[in-house]
């Protein structure tokens, strides 16, 4: 068995390497406004300050700490990140979501912008590493 992601409630898993937090995997649970650009590129929204995560969550600016800092460090260091995506199951399946491993991606950009909530969020552009098998599911591309 291969460990893909061990943080049960966080979308960003990370480890400490040489006094720096570095992301090892991310999960797209569908609770943030992540956006597929193509089957090879998507935009991942950082963690924190999202009212969709919990009824008691406060809407606030995201901070450059924890998983967000780890993804930023992964950008700076060129480290690959495992990506796991949650997708809606079809009617015959037992649970609402199915999680699939989409492969290794490199975080190529990191920036901050104002979300529809009026608060700052971190966004990360991830590009799928070359030489991996094609994805066996379709990613719907949302137009800007």
UniProtKB/TrEMBL annotation:
Q: Which Pfam families does the record cross-reference, listed alphabetically? A: SAD_SRA (PF02182)
Q: Is Nucleus a UniProt keyword of this protein?
A: yes
Methyltransferase keyword on record: no
Which Gene3D superfamilies would you find in this protein's record?
SRA-YDG
GO CC terms: chromosome; nucleus
- Domain (YDG) spans 1-128
Q: Where in the cell is it found?
A: Chromosome; Nucleus
Q: Name one GO molecular function term.
A: double-stranded DNA binding
Keywords assigned by UniProt, alphabetized:
Nucleus
> Which PANTHER family does the annotation name?
HISTONE-LYSINE N-METHYLTRANSFERASE SETMAR, SET DOMAIN-CONTAINING PROTEIN
Q: What is this protein called?
A: YDG domain-containing protein
Query: Which source organism does the UniProt entry give?
Result: Solanum verrucosum
């Amino acid at each position: 068995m291969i460990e893909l992601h061990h943080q049960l409630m966080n979308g960003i898993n990370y480890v400490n390497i040489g006094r720096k937090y570095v992301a090892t995997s991310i999960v797209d649970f569908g609770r943030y406004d992540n956006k597929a650009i193509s089957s090879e590129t998507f935009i991942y929204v950082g963690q924190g300050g999202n009212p969709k995560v919990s009824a008691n969550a406060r809407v606030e600016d995201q901070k450059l700490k924890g998983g967000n800092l780890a993804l930023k460090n992964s950008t700076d260091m060129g480290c690959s990140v495992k990506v796991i995506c949650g997708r809606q199951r079809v009617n015959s399946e037992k649970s609402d979501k199915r999680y699939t491993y989409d492969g290794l991606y490199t975080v190529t950009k990191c920036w901050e912008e104002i979300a529809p909530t009026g608060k700052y969020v971190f966004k990360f552009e991830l590009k799928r590493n070359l030489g991996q098998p094609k994805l066996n599911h379709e990613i719907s591309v949302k137009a800007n």
